[in-house]
Amino acid sequence: MRRGTSENKPNKATELLPEPTIRRLPWYLAYVSMLRSENIEYVSSTRISEELHVDSSQIAKDLSFINIKGKTRIGYEVASLEDALRSFLGFSQRHDAVMVGAGSLGAALMQDSGLQRYGLNIVAGIDTNPGLIGTEIAGIPVYGPEQLAPMVERLHITVGIIAVPVESAQTVADALIAAGVRALWNFTPTRIRVDNDDVVVTNTSIYSHLAVMYNRLSNLPDPTSR
Amino acid sequence: MRRGTSENKPNKATELLPEPTIRRLPWYLAYVSMLRSENIEYVSSTRISEELHVDSSQIAKDLSFINIKGKTRIGYEVASLEDALRSFLGFSQRHDAVMVGAGSLGAALMQDSGLQRYGLNIVAGIDTNPGLIGTEIAGIPVYGPEQLAPMVERLHITVGIIAVPVESAQTVADALIAAGVRALWNFTPTRIRVDNDDVVVTNTSIYSHLAVMYNRLSNLPDPTSR
Question: Quick one: what percent of chain A has pLDDT higher than 90?
Answer without folding.
Answer: 59
